[in-house]
Amino acid sequence: MMLDVIHSIALALAQVSGADAGTTAASRAVAAGAHVLAAAPAAAAAAGSLGIAHFVGQSDLIGKSLFVFLVLMSLASWYLILAKAFTHLRIRHRSRKFLAEFWAASSLEQVENEIATHGATEPFAHLASHAIHAQKHHARYGALKLEESGSTAAFVTRTIRKVIDEETARLENGLTVLASVGSTAPFVGLFGTVWGVYHALLSIGMADGVTINRIAGPVGEALVMTGLGLAVAIPAVLGYNAFVRINRVYLARLDAFAHDLFTFLTTGQQVDDGDHERRGPMISLASKRGA
Fold this sequence. Notes:
Helices cover about 80% and strands about 0% of the residues. By secondary structure, it is an all-alpha fold.
């Protein structure tokens, strides 16, 4: 409707002015503006037709499969990142609470009662529960089975080592997926780009004429896969590095607590250093793995 009105005004001005050069120039300007307005919606529609949706729509089965695979990789990595972040925050809060209660307890019986009441819901409580039970069981019944052979200290050491290995495996669960996504997603996106450019060049070669418009559109759309691969890989790599560092620090604290607990269970006394949070392990349990 608006374009018809502009055309009518331009024709009326041309008829009334006759040979007036200034009015003729004005009518030509108005007509040119009308043509620009008419071409603008077409250009906007052409620009809107480009993008990820347009590329996926015109790609073949392999291109669609690669796109779906990247989307699934992104969903899996973000699920692991959010789930493990929430788990680490929960474990950190519960660990601080348990350690404060453990070192404030007057005896191991009080610690056992606290664990029995609230449960072993984090690695420190899990380690303390198994170590205390192993020490009491071996002291009361001795070596009833082959796995219980040796002294009480050796049996407690094996129990602590087993619990630390279990907690390490639990903390590292899911990191393999993040590492795999971070290392493979860019290559999956690059393969999608190469495949898209290959089909774009085939279609251009079969066309009658070759212009920059025919080349820029399909090739630009194919490059979307490379960007998508990087968008999937970068969060996975950052999440993997962050969780590896968090696990390393947390396991170092668990190893230090294991040393203190072992010393207390075997000697009945705490270690001399009272700062249980900052001290590193005085005797690494890794050196006891040959026991």
